[in-house]
Design a protein that fits this description.
By secondary structure, the chain is mostly helical. It has one domain. It is globular, with a radius of gyration of 21 Å.
Length: 411
């Protein structure tokens, strides 16, 4: 984040001079004074507390919190956390949770993790709003900048209130938001602060390996702008991740575990699709194919910062065996980018025949990603179930592809 003195840079990026819309939007967001960022987080925090006060303040553990706490207890008793059914996270997290519980006591540790998770969510939402752009281009006017700031708060607040994945994650007590809140800023600012970004990514992946697919992209196909800094972040983060994974006991037990009957779990991952279709592809092979395709596409889009970011976040989701609503919070920036681009393209093409078609498709795709209910497609006729499982993944890929295509032609 930079001071308002850099707003002159933003003014040079008026859309009339044909810069990339998303680059200009992010630079405008980054140029806000730190007070504006802090105030936005406070406003979002109050909105979220009004919406989710009951689950956030509940004295009893939520479903996923109970799972974590059983793993913490197992470590405290000298047992493996993988004796706890459903605990599929690195041992380091259980060890940290055991220490935190012993230090603060169970209730205080629970509220500490809950507060960190909530803060991660707020950071993710406000950072996602960085790519939400006003329709007018008068960036140099203070009134327009205030209006843009308010629009971003409204966009982030709407997601906070209405996105099912956020409500799901808060009611379950799942720590996805903390992991994403560490990974997303680290990825966005890796080119500027690699020594901070690498450890932040490592902590995120040690907590929950949602963003693990980002490391190969950072190391092998980094963005062309500040490529060495991105590579440094990837190498540092990847090395620290391996240390945090393997330095703690029991981790090899996690590698030996298997999520049985993934085809019957209410998720829309590509792993479930492969199980439903009985393709006989091992999950490690499927992961390798996803990473390989991502690296190929990453080499193609690496000249576009927004396109590369959209690819990295999309790959993180597609490489995850179990995709829940709270997992999808990591692709909120992709949704914001696609919707912002679609809105601008509609504005530029008003009066032309079928000008509404492309923006409508993009907004429909955003709704599919945000609101798709994988549990509603259980026990259907196999071809129908396979098609309905393919739709959300294909839609997310289409949104990321739209962002990348626009970035390649405008960055």
């Amino acid at each position: 984040m930079e001071s308002s003195d850099s707003s002159s840079t933003t003014e040079l990026k008026a859309v009339g001079s044909a810069p990339n819309l998303l680059t200009a939007a992010f630079d405008e967001w980054r140029a806000l004074p730190w007070q504006a960022h802090c105030l936005a987080l406070v406003v979002l925090a109050l909105v979220g507390l009004a919406r989710y006060w009951t689950p956030l303040s509940a004295p009893v553990a939520h479903i996923d919190e109970s799972l974590y706490e059983l793993a913490f207890q197992a470590i405290d008793e000298g047992r493996s956390p993988y004796e706890v059914r459903g605990y599929y996270y690195p041992t380091a997290f259980a060890t940290f949770g055991s220490w935190l519980t012993e230090t603060l006591g169970m209730p205080a540790a629970r509220y500490t993790l809950r507060a960190g998770n909530y803060l991660g969510l707020l950071i993710t939402l406000w950072l996602s709003a960085a790519w939400w752009r006003r329709l007018d281009d008068t960036l140099g006017h203070a009134s327009a900048q205030r209006s843009a700031w308010l629009e971003r708060i409204f966009f982030a607040g709407l997601l906070l209130i209405a996105a099912p994945g956020i409500a799901e994650g808060i009611h379950l007590g799942n720590l996805s938001f903390l992991a994403i809140g560490l990974a997303l800023p680290a990825l966005v600012f890796a080119g500027r602060q690699p020594l901070l970004a690498g450890p932040a990514l490592a902590l995120s992946v040690t907590l929950k390996p949602i963003a693990a697919a980002i490391f190969p992209l950072l190391v092998f196909t980094p963005p062309t702008k500040r490529a060495r800094a991105h590579q440094l972040a990837g190498i540092l983060g990847g090395g620290l991740t391996l240390l945090l994974w393997f330095a703690f006991p029991y981790f090899f037990q996690l590698l030996g575990q298997d999520v049985l009957r993934i085809g019957f779990i209410r998720t829309w991952s590509l792993y479930r699709l492969a199980d439903v279709l009985h393709l006989g592809i091992g999950r490690l092979w499927l992961l390798a194919m996803i990473v390989a395709v991502t690296l190929i596409v990453g080499y193609w889009v690496r000249t576009s910062r927004s396109g590369w970011l959209a690819l990295a976040l999309t790959a993180s989701v597609l490489a995850t065996p179990l995709i829940w609503g709270h997992t999808l919070v990591i692709v909120f920036p992709v949704v914001a980018m696609a919707m912002s681009l679609a809105r601008r393209r509609w504005q530029k093409r008003v009066g032309r025949q079928h000008a509404w078609a492309e923006p409508s498709f993009i907004y429909l795709g955003a709704a599919v990603v945000l609101f798709y209910n994988a549990g509603a497609i259980d026990d259907l006729w196999l071809p129908i179930e396979a098609l309905l499982l393919l739709i959300p993944s294909a839609t997310l890929i289409a949104l990321a592809g739209f962002v990348a295509w626009q970035g390649l032609h405008n960055d």
